[in-house]
Amino acid sequence: MKIQNATRWAPRGPQAWLAACLALALACGIRILLSPFVGPAMPGALFCVAAALIEYFFGLAPALAVMLIGLVIADYLFVPPYANFSVFDHSDVMLLISYPSLTIFVISLIERLRRSQFRAELFASVAKSRYEMLLRADNNRALRLRTIDETHRLLRHLPHYHDTIILIQALDRKASLRSDAQHAADSAHTLPHTSAPGSRFSSVHPADIERLQNTLSPGSHRLRVKNGEHSYKSVDCVGERFTTHAGDFLVLRIED
Fold first, then answer.
1. Which of 84, 123, 175, 255 could form a disulfide with 236 if both were Cys (CB 3.0 to 4.6 A apart)?
2. Domains and CATH numbers, the chain
């Protein structure tokens, strides 16, 4: 994978050039303070350090500017004869050769390392985003498999307990039941539009049906079921929840 923006690691804007000016001023000030102790020795050392620091934080262009301006300042102020460009001797030649060579080598090495670091960070960012995409895909696949398993369980459940099912209810807006099942319930009692009666619905006591409309939930329930022409018998019922691709459903049936 090729990274096109690896050379654009350095921050852009006026702050880079302000930092370069500040580094030059500090290097010059410190070198002036050290002049009584070191004399004309190593006139460009502090400017080389300043250029390296600017390269590390702000990139190649400000570092080259610090190097070139530092060369002029070092030759003018710290190479004898001081404050004089009219004389060009061995000291000037040594400064002109050694200082740019060492500085260019250092900032080139830092630039290469910073580009490699930035390229690695880009690779890590791309790898992280792809990993998150894979995780989301795996999660979606797991959810789909779960809903498929729940759907298969519901399909196996309905035929097996067909004669004992009292009510099937949709638990969310996404779930829906057929309107003809709703129409079949109108002859017994009025149900919410998200419910459908089972084969034993008409045998449940009307008061229990009215109570279930507001309190139906997964778990155990006790209902009165018709035991004769005009008598009712209390039976244990169980509500089971199924999560499918069409939504969540609750099946209320008479417990075995």
1. 255
2. 9-129 (no CATH), 161-254 (3.30.450)
* Contact assessment for residue 111 and residue 60, using Cβ atoms and an 8 Å cutoff: yes
Mapped to the 3 state alphabet, what secondary structure does 191-226 carry? CCCCEEECCCHHHECHHHHHHHHHHCCCEEEEEEEE
Strands 195-197 and 219-226, how do they pair?
unpaired
Question: pLDDT tens digit string along 127-182?
Answer: 899 999 999 999 988 888 887 777 777 767 776 778 888 888 877 655 544 444 44
b/e map 237-250, b = 16+ CB within 10 Å: bbbeebbbebbbbb
Q: What is the dihedral of CA 37, 42, 46, 51, to 10 degrees?
A: 170
Residues 50/52/58/63 CA torsion (nearest 10 deg) = 80
Contact 32, 77 (CB under 8 A): yes
User: Distance between alpha carbon 37 and the CA centroid of its chain, in Å?
Assistant: 56
- Entry pTM: 0.54
